[in-house]
Amino acid sequence: MVKALAQALNFRVSFYQSPNPDTEKWGRFQLNGTFSGLLGEIVSGRSDFALGDFHYTRYHLGLMDLSIPYDTECWTFLTPEILSDNSWKTLILPFSPEMWIGVCVSLLAVGLIFFLLSTFYVYIHHKMTPHHTQKHFRVQNLVFWTTRVEQEAPENPPKVTEPRRSKDIFDDFSNCILYTYSMLLLVSLPRLPRAWAIRLLTGWYYIYCILLVVAYKASMTAILANPVAR
Predict the structure, then answer these.
(1) Which of 17, 79, 114, 227 could tie 176 with a disulfide, CB 3.0–4.6 Å?
(2) DSSP secondary structure, 129-169, as one string
(3) pLDDT tens per residue across span 130-166
(4) Are 44 and 34 in contact (CB under 8 A)?
Protein backbone atom coordinates (compact mmCIF):
# COMPACT_ATOMS: atom_id res chain seq x y z
CA MET A 1 0.00 0.00 0.00
CA VAL A 2 2.81 2.43 0.85
CA LYS A 3 4.67 1.57 -2.36
CA ALA A 4 1.51 2.13 -4.39
CA LEU A 5 1.04 5.54 -2.73
CA ALA A 6 4.69 6.43 -3.42
CA GLN A 7 4.30 5.55 -7.09
CA ALA A 8 1.05 7.47 -7.42
CA LEU A 9 2.16 10.55 -5.52
CA ASN A 10 5.76 10.46 -6.77
CA PHE A 11 7.79 10.18 -3.59
CA ARG A 12 10.44 7.75 -2.39
CA VAL A 13 9.98 5.49 0.64
CA SER A 14 12.73 4.32 3.00
CA PHE A 15 11.75 1.49 5.34
CA TYR A 16 13.61 0.97 8.62
CA GLN A 17 12.99 -0.45 12.07
CA SER A 18 12.70 1.65 15.19
CA PRO A 19 15.59 1.40 17.70
CA ASN A 20 15.54 -1.65 19.99
CA PRO A 21 12.40 -3.23 18.51
CA ASP A 22 12.73 -6.37 20.64
CA THR A 23 12.59 -4.50 23.97
CA GLU A 24 10.78 -1.26 23.17
CA LYS A 25 8.35 -2.69 20.60
CA TRP A 26 5.66 -0.03 20.03
CA GLY A 27 7.24 2.34 22.52
CA ARG A 28 6.39 3.93 25.83
CA PHE A 29 6.55 7.24 27.61
CA GLN A 30 9.89 7.96 29.30
CA LEU A 31 10.86 10.07 32.31
CA ASN A 32 12.47 12.78 30.16
CA GLY A 33 9.15 13.49 28.42
CA THR A 34 9.88 11.65 25.16
CA PHE A 35 8.64 8.39 23.69
CA SER A 36 10.71 5.38 22.74
CA GLY A 37 10.19 2.78 20.03
CA LEU A 38 7.78 3.23 17.18
CA LEU A 39 5.77 5.90 19.02
CA GLY A 40 8.95 7.93 19.49
CA GLU A 41 9.65 7.91 15.75
CA ILE A 42 6.16 9.21 14.98
CA VAL A 43 5.87 11.78 17.79
CA SER A 44 9.32 13.24 17.10
CA GLY A 45 8.56 13.57 13.37
CA ARG A 46 11.45 11.40 12.19
CA SER A 47 9.01 9.13 10.38
CA ASP A 48 5.91 9.92 8.34
CA PHE A 49 4.32 6.46 8.34
CA ALA A 50 4.32 3.69 10.87
CA LEU A 51 3.30 0.09 10.25
CA GLY A 52 2.12 -1.71 13.38
CA ASP A 53 -0.92 -3.23 15.02
CA PHE A 54 -1.79 -0.28 17.21
CA HIS A 55 -4.94 -0.57 19.24
CA TYR A 56 -7.62 1.95 18.39
CA THR A 57 -7.60 3.77 21.74
CA ARG A 58 -7.79 7.41 22.81
CA TYR A 59 -4.21 7.24 24.00
CA HIS A 60 -2.89 6.35 20.55
CA LEU A 61 -5.30 8.75 18.81
CA GLY A 62 -3.83 11.57 20.91
CA LEU A 63 -0.36 10.84 19.51
CA MET A 64 -1.02 10.06 15.85
CA ASP A 65 -3.70 9.59 13.21
CA LEU A 66 -4.74 6.01 12.75
CA SER A 67 -6.22 4.42 9.66
CA ILE A 68 -9.57 2.69 9.63
CA PRO A 69 -9.29 -0.47 11.77
CA TYR A 70 -8.50 -3.51 9.65
CA ASP A 71 -9.47 -5.95 12.39
CA THR A 72 -12.09 -5.85 15.14
CA GLU A 73 -12.09 -8.34 17.99
CA CYS A 74 -14.25 -8.76 21.07
CA TRP A 75 -12.26 -9.06 24.27
CA THR A 76 -13.64 -10.34 27.57
CA PHE A 77 -11.92 -9.54 30.82
CA LEU A 78 -12.22 -12.11 33.62
CA THR A 79 -11.74 -10.83 37.16
CA PRO A 80 -11.96 -12.57 40.53
CA GLU A 81 -15.28 -12.49 42.35
CA ILE A 82 -15.82 -9.38 44.45
CA LEU A 83 -15.38 -10.36 48.08
CA SER A 84 -16.36 -6.97 49.47
CA ASP A 85 -19.97 -7.22 48.30
CA ASN A 86 -22.18 -4.78 50.21
CA SER A 87 -25.54 -5.89 48.83
CA TRP A 88 -26.61 -6.93 52.33
CA LYS A 89 -26.31 -3.28 53.39
CA THR A 90 -29.04 -2.22 50.97
CA LEU A 91 -31.71 -2.46 53.67
CA ILE A 92 -29.89 -0.04 55.99
CA LEU A 93 -28.40 2.32 53.40
CA PRO A 94 -31.56 4.49 52.95
CA PHE A 95 -31.03 6.03 56.41
CA SER A 96 -27.86 7.32 58.02
CA PRO A 97 -26.66 5.82 61.33
CA GLU A 98 -27.94 8.88 63.21
CA MET A 99 -31.36 8.42 61.62
CA TRP A 100 -31.49 4.74 62.60
CA ILE A 101 -30.55 5.63 66.18
CA GLY A 102 -33.36 8.21 66.22
CA VAL A 103 -35.87 5.63 64.91
CA CYS A 104 -34.89 3.09 67.60
CA VAL A 105 -34.98 5.70 70.36
CA SER A 106 -38.40 6.93 69.21
CA LEU A 107 -39.65 3.34 69.12
CA LEU A 108 -38.70 2.77 72.77
CA ALA A 109 -39.81 6.24 73.85
CA VAL A 110 -43.25 6.01 72.25
CA GLY A 111 -43.74 2.50 73.63
CA LEU A 112 -42.88 3.79 77.11
CA ILE A 113 -45.30 6.72 76.70
CA PHE A 114 -48.08 4.32 75.68
CA PHE A 115 -47.39 2.21 78.77
CA LEU A 116 -47.31 5.23 81.11
CA LEU A 117 -50.59 6.61 79.73
CA SER A 118 -52.25 3.21 80.01
CA THR A 119 -50.97 2.80 83.59
CA PHE A 120 -52.21 6.27 84.51
CA TYR A 121 -55.60 5.47 82.97
CA VAL A 122 -55.82 2.26 85.05
CA TYR A 123 -54.93 4.24 88.18
CA ILE A 124 -57.63 6.83 87.47
CA HIS A 125 -60.15 4.07 86.77
CA HIS A 126 -59.46 2.35 90.11
CA LYS A 127 -59.42 5.70 91.88
CA MET A 128 -62.86 6.81 90.70
CA THR A 129 -64.96 3.65 90.30
CA PRO A 130 -64.58 1.65 93.59
CA HIS A 131 -66.66 4.13 95.66
CA HIS A 132 -69.81 3.27 93.69
CA THR A 133 -69.26 -0.46 93.57
CA GLN A 134 -68.46 -0.80 97.27
CA LYS A 135 -71.61 1.09 98.21
CA HIS A 136 -73.67 -1.09 95.90
CA PHE A 137 -72.15 -4.28 97.28
CA ARG A 138 -72.60 -3.14 100.84
CA VAL A 139 -76.29 -2.54 100.25
CA GLN A 140 -76.69 -5.98 98.71
CA ASN A 141 -74.66 -7.47 101.51
CA LEU A 142 -76.87 -5.80 104.10
CA VAL A 143 -80.01 -7.16 102.46
CA PHE A 144 -78.42 -10.57 102.25
CA TRP A 145 -77.54 -10.61 105.94
CA THR A 146 -80.91 -9.33 107.10
CA THR A 147 -82.78 -11.99 105.20
CA ARG A 148 -80.48 -14.78 106.26
CA VAL A 149 -80.15 -13.99 109.94
CA GLU A 150 -83.68 -15.31 110.57
CA GLN A 151 -82.74 -18.69 109.16
CA GLU A 152 -79.17 -19.43 110.19
CA ALA A 153 -75.98 -17.57 110.93
CA PRO A 154 -73.35 -18.21 108.30
CA GLU A 155 -69.94 -19.35 109.45
CA ASN A 156 -67.96 -17.48 106.78
CA PRO A 157 -69.44 -14.17 105.64
CA PRO A 158 -69.08 -13.50 101.89
CA LYS A 159 -66.14 -11.37 100.83
CA VAL A 160 -66.70 -8.09 99.09
CA THR A 161 -64.96 -8.17 95.69
CA GLU A 162 -64.45 -5.22 93.43
CA PRO A 163 -65.29 -5.51 89.74
CA ARG A 164 -62.21 -6.06 87.64
CA ARG A 165 -61.43 -3.92 84.60
CA SER A 166 -60.66 -5.86 81.44
CA LYS A 167 -57.15 -5.35 80.11
CA ASP A 168 -56.49 -2.93 77.31
CA ILE A 169 -53.99 -3.56 74.47
CA PHE A 170 -51.38 -1.18 75.94
CA ASP A 171 -51.54 -2.34 79.58
CA ASP A 172 -48.39 -4.50 79.29
CA PHE A 173 -45.02 -3.00 78.41
CA SER A 174 -44.20 -5.90 76.06
CA ASN A 175 -47.44 -5.29 74.16
CA CYS A 176 -46.62 -1.58 73.96
CA ILE A 177 -43.27 -2.30 72.27
CA LEU A 178 -44.80 -4.99 70.04
CA TYR A 179 -47.72 -2.87 68.83
CA THR A 180 -45.50 0.20 68.44
CA TYR A 181 -43.17 -1.81 66.21
CA SER A 182 -46.12 -3.23 64.25
CA MET A 183 -47.46 0.28 63.65
CA LEU A 184 -44.02 1.25 62.34
CA LEU A 185 -44.43 -1.56 59.79
CA LEU A 186 -47.92 -0.20 58.95
CA VAL A 187 -49.70 -3.17 60.53
CA SER A 188 -53.12 -2.31 61.92
CA LEU A 189 -53.90 -2.74 65.62
CA PRO A 190 -56.27 -5.55 66.68
CA ARG A 191 -58.59 -2.91 68.19
CA LEU A 192 -58.47 0.70 69.28
CA PRO A 193 -57.54 1.53 72.88
CA ARG A 194 -60.33 2.69 75.16
CA ALA A 195 -58.67 5.83 76.55
CA TRP A 196 -59.05 8.86 74.29
CA ALA A 197 -55.59 10.16 75.19
CA ILE A 198 -54.04 6.91 73.94
CA ARG A 199 -56.23 7.01 70.82
CA LEU A 200 -54.99 10.51 70.05
CA LEU A 201 -51.38 9.44 70.53
CA THR A 202 -52.01 6.43 68.29
CA GLY A 203 -53.26 8.68 65.48
CA TRP A 204 -50.26 10.99 65.66
CA TYR A 205 -47.87 8.05 65.81
CA TYR A 206 -49.49 6.52 62.72
CA ILE A 207 -48.86 9.79 60.83
CA TYR A 208 -45.19 9.67 61.93
CA CYS A 209 -44.93 6.03 60.78
CA ILE A 210 -46.41 6.85 57.36
CA LEU A 211 -43.95 9.71 56.81
CA LEU A 212 -41.03 7.53 57.92
CA VAL A 213 -42.01 4.67 55.61
CA VAL A 214 -42.48 7.00 52.63
CA ALA A 215 -39.02 8.53 53.21
CA TYR A 216 -37.47 5.06 53.51
CA LYS A 217 -39.10 3.80 50.30
CA ALA A 218 -38.06 6.92 48.36
CA SER A 219 -34.45 6.60 49.52
CA MET A 220 -34.45 2.87 48.75
CA THR A 221 -35.75 3.53 45.22
CA ALA A 222 -33.00 6.11 44.65
CA ILE A 223 -30.31 3.68 45.84
CA LEU A 224 -31.59 0.86 43.63
CA ALA A 225 -31.80 3.21 40.61
CA ASN A 226 -28.22 4.49 41.15
CA PRO A 227 -26.25 1.76 42.91
CA VAL A 228 -22.97 2.58 44.60
CA ALA A 229 -19.95 1.74 42.44
CA ARG A 230 -17.95 -1.22 43.70
Answers:
(1) 114
(2) SHHHHHHHHHHHHHHHHHHHTTT---SSPPPP-PPPPPPPT
(3) 544 444 444 444 444 444 444 444 555 555 455 555 6
(4) yes
